[in-house]
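G., the chain you wanted modeled:
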Amino acid sequence: MACSRHNSGVVEHNPDVDELVIVEPGEPARRIGARFRGRIDLAIALAPRTTDFELVGATRAPTRIGYTYVRRYATRLTARLHLTEVGLSEADPELCDRDPHYVVRHEVDQVLSLVTIAGGATLSHDLVLPICDEDRARVAAVPAGGIAFQLAPRWLRDGSTLESALDLMRRLRGFGLPLIATYGSDAAGFADAVRASGIADAVIGDLAFSAWAAAFEKSALVVTVDTGATHVASAVKRPTVVLFEHRYFNLSSQEWAPYRVPSVILRKPAGEDPAALADLRERVLAAVESLLATTCR
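Predicted structure as tokens:
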């Protein structure tokens, strides 16, 4: 597998990957693909990006497959320069907004369609994210059985505010479970505010990817906005409450929903007036209550 260093943490311990090639920033995709020329039978572009198509095309593998979006007509044509087979994703924000009943497959299922295009007959829907004892040891001090709350910039804008998010976290303590705040480098300021408020039992960041997953694994459920936390929670089989942005909700809530785990999907309000923010907090609390009642008895 070839991927960026940022994404490598997701697959570096995956037992199905025999070799991991790190693509450094600025490294020409064609040069990477050319390393495999004459060595492989099948090359797959896992993202619908021209860079990925170029990398796969440069391998000159007999079978080179990928996918793009249904209304990206120019990309559909240029993809043929690099790929032998091109799948189509129905994901399109305008089509989803035009028709609320427009169906978009989950992104996992879109990627799995490449297996069928490649001639595979068996699909495995289990998300694979190995967590070892060392990863669990790194979060041993994190209370178990709590509510994991992923801090992210989308809690602070476009239908949510810092004050509203902090108030929500205070009220989540009413369930009598530990409250665990996790964060990445993009939410360090948010994490400082949570620490200063004293409302979380633990505020943890700067974790290795698999250790972050281990923190979710030991929690009862996960509350998050639309971030990678949604998918990590699915991989470790944790119930999830996820808030998607008001804009493009019909698309996002289908394509990037929690995958095959108990979940509640909510839409952030269009504005940040007090009544809308209060309603959002009530909906999150009701969602958490329903998931705890049905999955955490």
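Residues 150 and 182 are 5 Å apart (CA to CA).

Shout if anything looks off.
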